[in-house]
Design a protein that fits this description.
This protein is α+β, with helices and mostly antiparallel strands. It is built from three helices and eleven strands, in the order E-E-E-H-E-E-E-E-H-E-E-E-H-E. The longest helix is centred in the middle third of the chain and has 13 residues. It starts with a strand and ends in an 8-residue tail after the last strand.
Length: 183
């Protein structure tokens, strides 16, 4: 397969584009089953991954699992990485389009979720909102560069029931008052 460097200066140094004469990979047929995703990770472009990694360690309790000059991988302690911080290209600007938020499902009960809320408040993290989604509760916050996250506490654990409830309520996000727990 013939590949050439992206003349637009791709983000990843190993990125390549198809040679103009090369046929693209065919799209799978309609009879193929959809992909089954077990878990995933998030990669964010940031100004300084090394500086921002400290916030993720302190506020979210993550650990650095790998680092290089241009990136840092962080884990919640189980997988090799859950979030990657990648140095943005020089001159990159934040915009209004793109990722709206990344949801992090909390392992534990409602009090654990409320403790995370208290931790965010104690560390002066901007909390955007707390919501009732009818299938669980959301706590939205931002990191120092404005990337938005949600700590999610699931109350409906049956996925088919969750789909039914979301459909019936139109994917609700109703504001709620939450008492944070500290310590």
């Amino acid at each position: 397969m013939s590949q050439t460097r992206d003349p637009r200066g791709g983000i990843d140094p190993d990125e390549s584009v198809l040679d103009p004469a090369q046929e693209p990979t065919p799209i799978r047929g309609d009879d193929a089953p959809p992909p089954r995703v077990r878990r995933t990770h998030l990669s964010l472009f940031v100004r300084d991954p090394h500086a921002l990694a400290g916030w993720y360690e302190d506020v979210l309790g993550m650990e650095v699992t790998a680092r290089a000059e241009e990136w840092i991988f962080l884990s919640f302690g189980v997988k090799h990485h859950d979030i990657a911080l990648i140095r943005a290209p020089e001159g990159a600007r934040s915009g209004g389009l793109g990722l709206q938020h990344y949801g992090l499902e909390v392992d534990g009960d409602l009090d654990e979720w409320r403790r995370l809320y208290g931790r965010l408040l104690a560390k002066n993290v901007p909390v955007v909102k707390t919501t009732d989604h009818k299938i669980g509760f959301g706590l939205y916050f931002t990191d120092p560069e404005g990337n938005r996250f949600e700590f999610f506490h699931e109350t409906v654990t049956d996925d088919e029931e969750g789909k039914r409830i979301l459909g019936r309520h139109g994917a609700p996000s109703e504001p709620i008052d939450v008492d944070p727990l500290y310590g």
